[in-house]
């Protein structure tokens, strides 16, 4: 809920800032301040292309446009040092903070240092302006405060990293920890000589969409609670995609995992039907074999789920290395036996 409130506030603030910048651009244009108008329009473009303005701005093309708009804004602000108006010089104070928010730390530091050098050279070269020394000191102070805020942000992120293991909607473990956790379970299984299996659950709908519909997203918390109720205390499940979950089952053979997968699949289907969504669910199952690692096991279970969905969905599919080899030799489609 806290993250949703934060995103809501950022969206409102960005839209308000966008409207204010457009108003400043129009007012400056009527008053003949062309550089101010252009700079305000570029700043509005920076806001418009940010992920806070709209969720789809997280795509690579939008991020590239966002950085390009920021670069144009820096150029316009540096031009104002020699061309005027001096009111735009104060906008430079926000450049370091925005740079550290957009770019990796080394790139942001280099960009900030370049802006500092260019701003100091431009301001120092303006003879007859007693305020130039104050402006240099104020710009340096703003840069120091920006660096302090960046340091506090990085420190907070590292302190809170262990607490961000769960997905907000489903309470499933985050995908970033899946490979490391799976590697540990594989090592434990091999050391103790026990079985281990993984299950991947997927909803058979909007398979090509990256953004599920609102009604599907609203049911995700119930899906997470249902998965939690069906697993043991030491089993773990991860949200690997918007509509897909991976479950690690230590000490469970493939046949038993297939039985559990079918139980979970039918239960989730009933849950979705009870909310009048009319969706089906598929499951892929893979057991740990000799030579498997975290990546190969994830690939096996993903292939099993893909095979189940390619066969029409609403079914479970167990991955079999023997069947994969046999089908590859005969030219038949890959996949294990559907339950």
What this model shows, in words?
With 339 residues, the protein is α+β, with helices and mostly antiparallel strands. The chain has 2 domains: 2-163; 175-330, Alpha-Beta Plaits (2-Layer Sandwich). Helix content is 60%, strand content 9%. The protein has 11 helices and 5 strands; from the N terminus they run H-H-H-H-H-H-H-E-H-E-E-H-E-H-E-H. The protein has helices at 2-30, 34-48, 60-83, 95-102, 105-124, 132-160, 178-192, 214-230, 254-274, 294-310, 321-330, and strands spanning 196-203, 236-241, 244-250, 281-287, 316-318. The protein has a 5-stranded mixed sheet with strand order 2-3-1-4-5, with helices on both faces. It is elongated and about 80 Å long. Residues 1-9, 207-211 and 322-339 have low confidence and may be disordered.
What structural keywords apply?
alpha+beta, disordered N terminus, five-stranded mixed beta sheet, disordered C terminus, 9% strand, 2 domains, Alpha-Beta Plaits, elongated, 339 residues
Biggest β-sheet strands, sense, barrel: 5 strands, mixed
Strand content: 5-15%
Topology order in helix (H) and strand (E) letters: HHHHHHHEHEEHEHEH
Would you count the extended β strands for me?
Answer: 5
Task: Show unreliable segments.
Answer: 1-9, 207-211, 322-339
Structural class: alpha+beta
| Helix run count | 11
Mean pLDDT value: 79
Give the N-to-C terminal Cα separation: 39 Å
Dominant shape: elongated
| Rg | 27 Å
């Amino acid at each position: 809920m806290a993250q949703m409130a934060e995103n809501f506030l950022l969206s409102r603030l960005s839209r308000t800032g966008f409207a204010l910048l457009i108003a400043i651009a129009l007012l400056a244009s009527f008053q003949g301040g062309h550089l101010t108008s252009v700079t305000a329009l570029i700043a509005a473009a920076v806001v418009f292309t940010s992920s806070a303005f709209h969720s789809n701005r997280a795509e690579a093309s939008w991020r590239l446009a966002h950085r390009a708009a920021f670069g144009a804004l820096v150029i316009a602000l540096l031009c104002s040092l020699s061309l005027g108006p001096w009111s735009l010089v104060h906008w430079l104070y926000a450049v370091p903070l925005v740079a550290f928010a957009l770019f990796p730390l080394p790139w942001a530091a280099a960009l900030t240092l370049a802006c500092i050098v260019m701003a100091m050279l431009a301001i120092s070269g303006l003879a007859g302006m007693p305020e130039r020394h104050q402006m240099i000191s104020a710009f340096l102070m703003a840069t120091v405060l920006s660096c302090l805020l960046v340091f506090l942000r990085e420190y907070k992120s590292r302190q809170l990293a262990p607490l961000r293991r769960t997905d907000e909607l489903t309470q499933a473990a985050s995908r970033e920890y899946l490979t490391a956790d799976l590697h540990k379970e594989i090592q434990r299984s091999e050391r103790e000589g026990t079985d281990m299996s993984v299950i991947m659950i997927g909803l058979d709908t909007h398979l090509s969409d990256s953004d599920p519909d609102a009604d599907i997203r609203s049911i995700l918390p119930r899906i997470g609670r249902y998965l939690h109720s069906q697993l043991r205390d030491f089993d773990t499940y991860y949200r690997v995609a918007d509509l897909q979950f991976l479950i690690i089952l230590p000490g469970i053979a493939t046949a038993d995992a297939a039985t559990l997968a079918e139980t979970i699949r039918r239960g989730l289907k009933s849950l979705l039907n009870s909310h009048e969504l009319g969706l089906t669910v598929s499951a892929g199952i893979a057991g740990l074999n000799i030579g498997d690692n975290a990546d190969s096991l994830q690939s096996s279970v993903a292939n099993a789920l893909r095979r189940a969905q390619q066969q029409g969905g609403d079914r479970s599919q167990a991955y079999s290395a023997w069947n994969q080899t046999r089908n590859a030799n005969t030219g038949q489609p890959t996949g294990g036996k559907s339950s």
